[in-house]
Each structure stands twice: as C-alpha cells, then as structure tokens.
Write a structure and sequence with these properties.
By secondary structure, the protein is α/β, with parallel strands linked by helices. The protein has 14 helices and 15 strands.
Length: 373
C-alpha cells in the first residue's frame, strides 16, 4: 500500500503523522511511504531522516493526497485538504467531527473512508489513541493555566504552589479521566489545592487511592461544580463523551460570580468545549477574557510540545497504521471491531452514532456500510 504523510497546516501545528521509525516499519513490510517535504522539520525530523529509512519525499501536499491510498495525519483535515480526498481513499487522523459541521460536509462530499483516532477502542472499551494526547494535554493544562494566572496575562497574580506563609492556589478539575488525572498530577506536584469532580464514584475512589489524600474528590452535581468553580483560581475542563459534543457545565451567568482574574482551561474544546463561553483559539492567540475570567481554549494543545507529542502519538497509532496497510482499510475495519469503532465517515455516510446525532445526519452502522464496500 502507498501511505501518504502530509505536512500539518493548522496554525502552530508541528506534529507529524509518522516518525522515521514508523516509516521504517512500514517499508520493511513492503509498503511505500510518501512524506511531504518539511513535514517533520518543526520537530527536528528532516527529509534526510525519512529518506534514510526508505520514504519518498513528495514536493507538495497535493502530490501526497493524489497518490496515497492511506493518508496518516495528526489533526483534522482543513478546508483546503478535504477537497483533495477521494472515494476509495482512507484517512486516519483525529477528526472531532461533532462540533465541526464544515469538516463533516467536506468528508461526506469526498466519499472517503475517515477513521478517527479519538473513537478507536481497545478490548476494554478504552480509547488508546486518544490517551497519549490526553496525557499531554492534561499536563499542559496546568502549565498553561499557571501562566495565565500571571498578572501580565490578565490573571489574578496567584502562584499555584504558594510560598511559606501564603496559601496556594485552588484548582478545580472537571472530569477524572486521563486528562483530569494527568492535570491532577501536575497540580498536586506544584503544591496547589486540588479538587477533582466526576460522576463516577468508582473513578473517584480510584483517584483517592492513587493520590493518597493529596487531593479532594467530589461527586459532580450541579451544586458541587458551581461551588468548586466559584472557589477556584484555575478550572480545567476535562470532560469527554466519545465522539459526541461536550456538555456545557459552566454557563455564562456563572462567570460574573467567579474570582476576578481566575482562569478556565478547556481541554474539551476539540469536542465543542465544556464552558458556554468557550471558543477555539490557537497557539498564536491562545486566550481571551470574558467578565474578568481568562479563557484558554487552544484546540491543539499538544502541538505546543510537538516533539514529545509526535513520538507519544506514533507509539500508539503505528500498530493500527500497519494493520490498515497490511490488510487494506476495508478488510481491516471488517475484521477488527476495535478499529471499526473509529470509522466515522464512509462513502458519503456518517457511521458513528454520536456524530450523526450531534450534526443531524442519518446514522448508518459501520457494519452495514462496510458490508456493501
């Protein structure tokens, strides 16, 4: 199979879909890999590193899209990329379609097979391709939030860890999954007062055991969320419903009662965000202020640490890339229910229920879609 790796074009996105090590594995199995020139340059992976392991260097993204049978990316195809996709071609990347009707229309019109990293599952129902970037984003949420609390950034001037004789800052984390746990690790490590809210008592028990009393846990009723957010210097939105739009947990009306200069970091922004006032921002212009509250809503947070993120993501995606290449996309999707859970769009139909519900499309079960392929 011919695998194509285009350069990412989202603002300040330096990650790349495959590392030279991954390309080497694919080439060893007899596949051809075309990498757009400069695709890995932002993280120190130059064209020579790809050539050394057997990749061909394409002079443009158009060449990659025109020739490849399988496109491997990091971020969702941008408006200029969707028209370059075609029927019979598969794309394997993060999609986050539920809050993105424009992208959905583009993929449906292209007639391609679109497989989303964020909805691929393992045998236990976990999300193995979302987890590495969730770990990065959770850690970054505290790093970014601590920076936003600085007075020069519009924050209250609070140091999360405090100093002897001065109370530390307070952090509320909405969601106790991979993002929330990673954020808690960083916040506890800095010495902040940390509360994690979640609707799973089993998960809260696990966190209580894991952190051995170094953080607080609360069941996430509306009242508990309001109380913790109003008391927090930094609130991290870490809620995920796989494939679906994120519920809005913080209404606009609550902002006026929050601490002046407090910070909201919405890690859920890829799926629409869990604060009513959230809107996607970029690393070039990451924050905005509403009612005195700083919002950090960068939609590709791990892109800021692109080298670490690329290697972490590639470690997780490579087995699936090889599976798709070895068997062909349709056969691989038919054979593996965990991979098939990643199928979001196929031949002009939506094949993931939460995406169909969020965007108002008819849902076609992936098994039915693939049966006629």
């Amino acid at each position: 199979m011919l695998i194509g790796v285009p350069k990412e074009i989202k603002v300040h996105e330096y990650r790349v879909g495959m590392t030279p090590a991954g390309v080497r594995e694919a080439v060893r199995r007899g596949h051809a890999v075309w990498v757009e020139t400069g695709a890995g340059a932002g993280i120190g992976l130059d064209d020579a590193a790809y050539r050394k392991v057997g990749a061909s260097i394409a002079v443009s993204a158009a060449q990659v899209f025109a020739e490849a049978e399988l496109i491997v990316k990091v971020k969702e195809p941008q408006p200029s990329e969707c028209p370059q996709l075609r029927a019979g071609q598969a794309i394997f990347t993060y999609l986050h379609l539920a809050p993105d009707p424009e992208q959905a229309r583009g993929l449906l019109a292209a007639g391609c097979t679109a497989i989303a990293y964020e909805t691929v599952t393992d045998l236990n129902g976990r999300l193995p391709l979302l987890a590495p970037m969730s770990e990065v984003a959770g850690r970054m949420a505290i790093q970014a939030g601590a920076h936003c609390l600085e007075k020069s950034q519009g924050g209250s001037g609070t140091l999360l860890g405090g100093v002897p004789g001065v109370l530390p800052g307070s952090v509320a984390i909405l969601g106790g999954g991979v993002v929330g746990t990673s954020a808690a690790r960083m916040a506890v490590g800095l010495g902040a007062r940390v509360t994690v809210l979640d609707r799973s008592l089993a998960r809260l028990r696990e966190l209580d055991d894991l952190f051995q009393g170094r953080l607080l846990t609360r069941f996430a009723t509306l009242e508990a969320v309001e109380e913790e957010v109003l008391a927090a210097d930094l609130t991290v939105g870490a809620v995920l419903i796989p494939g679906a739009a994120t519920p809005k947990l913080i209404p606009r009306a609550l902002l006026a009662a929050m601490k002046p200069g407090s910070v909201l970091v919405d890690v859920s922004i890829d799926q629409g965000g869990c604060f009513e006032t959230s809107r996607p921002t970029t690393h070039a212009d990451p924050t905005y202020i509403i009612d005195g509250v700083v919002h950090y809503c960068v939609a590709n947070m791990p892109g800021a640490v692109a080298r670490t993120s690329t290697f972490a993501l590639s470690n997780a995606t490579l087995p699936y890339v090889l599976q798709l290449a070895d068997q062909g996309a349709i056969a691989a999707l038919r054979d593996d229910p965990c991979l098939r859970a990643g199928l979001n769009v196929h031949r002009g139909r939506i094949t993931y229920p939460a995406v169909a519900a969020a965007l108002g499309y008819d849902y076609l079960p992936p098994e039915d879609a693939l049966a006629t392929a």
